[in-house]
UniProtKB/TrEMBL annotation:
Protein's name in the database: Amino acid/amide ABC transporter membrane protein 2, HAAT family (TC 3.A.1.4.-)
Keywords for the protein's UniProt record, in alphabetical order: Cell membrane, Membrane, Signal, Transmembrane, Transmembrane helix
Membrane topology recorded in Swiss-Prot or TrEMBL: Multi-pass membrane protein
Keyword Plastid included in the entry's annotation: no
InterPro entries: ABC_transp_permease, LivM-like
Pfam families: BPD_transp_2 (PF02653)
GO terms for MF: branched-chain amino acid transmembrane transporter activity
GO cellular component annotations of the record: plasma membrane
Organism: Tropicimonas isoalkanivorans
Subcellular location per the Swiss-Prot or TrEMBL entry: Cell membrane
């Protein structure tokens, strides 16, 4: 079997080679598809920290994804001249600066993860899943009932936000920013998995009683993991909203939470590059089969079923032939 490091290197090479070829061939849409893959991969890496390391099956991760998107939308809409209602409910100083927007998205999503985690982690199993789903639905319907920022119709941002020294309207440059962020969160994930905190988190997932026996708090470890996970997913939401220059309540829906989880399961739970592979497969299937049939998810379901039945390691695990652990 191929070593997992080789599989990871091949995935990384594709992330570099495909957009480079598209730039050379003047295929900007391919670069946009690749950017979509990278942003979804960032969101899935965030979930993989909570799910793969902490064993937290969250069906409410779209809360953080949507919060990141709305952080971008609200700040950018206050900075542009056009207002859909011509009058804002809040007197905010908007900004088109990506670093400021990213920081806002990360902090707001992290704070939401603290609030949700403090309540949800009082439960386990299916109850934890239902509580995270409930928070997701509350956030979704709140966004729908918020007409000041588009309500059900969403909010359009007519000019992409700015980053010092770059023209973010050029697809390959915006892709480079997103790829850099993916590299950062993958590095963070790898370090967490190998750190003492990662060992505590793994032990808390497997045998929490033993963690308590040595004087550590498994719930606190899971809360920290959930906060880190939410912050990363919120960053992905801001990037996704900037890619589309549009934010809507669908970013907060339970379907979005399910899609992020599908990315992780497809690629491989607890695999470092599993979320990247899963996001790539999902976007590729959506692009290739979406034009053939509006029911393309049927084929996705069949593939997901085969992967789950064949082993827990996802696509990366099947190729490397190893268990669901980080190499």
């Amino acid at each position: 079997m191929i070593r997992e490091r080789t599989v990871n290197a091949a995935i990384l090479a594709l992330l570099v080679a495909v957009p480079a070829w598209a730039q050379w061939a003047d295929e900007p849409f391919t670069i946009t598809l690749a950017t979509r893959v990278v942003i979804f991969a960032v969101a899935a890496v965030g979930l993989n920290i909570a799910l793969g390391l902490g064993g937290l099956v969250s069906l409410g991760h779209a809360v953080y994804f949507g919060l990141g998107g709305y952080a971008m939308g609200v700040l950018a809409s206050h900075a542009q001249n056009y207002s859909p209602l011509m009058e804002w409910p809040l007197q905010l100083d908007g900004t088109k600066s990506m670093p400021v927007i990213w920081l806002t998205a990360i902090l707001s999503s992290a704070l939401a993860a603290v609030a949700i985690g403090l309540l949800a982690l009082r439960t386990t199993g299916v109850y934890f899943i239902m509580i995270t789903l409930a928070f997701g639905q509350m956030a979704y319907f709140f966004a729908i009932s918020w007409p000041a920022y588009g309500g059900e119709d969403g909010l359009s941002i007519y000019v992409r936000n700015s980053f010092p020294g770059l023209n973010t309207l050029i697809p390959i440059q915006f892709y480079g920013l997103c790829l850099a962020w993916l590299g950062v969160v993958l590095f963070l994930n790898a370090r967490l998995a190998r750190s003492s905190f990662g060992l505590v988190l793994t032990a808390a997932r497997q045998v929490p009683q033993r963690v308590e026996a040595v004087g550590l708090d498994p719930t606190r470890a899971k809360l920290v993991a959930l906060v880190i996970s939410g912050a990363i997913t919120g960053l992905a939401g801001a990037l996704f909203a900037d890619l589309n220059r549009f934010v809507s309540p669908t970013m907060l829906s339970w379907q979005m939470s399910g899609e992020i989880m599908v990315f992780v399961i497809l690629g491989g739970v607890a695999r470092l590059f599993g979320p990247v592979a899963g996001a790539g497969i999902f976007v590729l299937l959506e692009h290739l089969l979406g034009g053939i049939s509006e029911y393309w998810q049927l084929f996705l379901g069949i593939i997901l079923l085969l992967i789950v039945l064949s082993g827990r390691g996802g696509v990366v695990g099947m190729l490397s032939g190893r268990g669901a652990t980080h190499e």
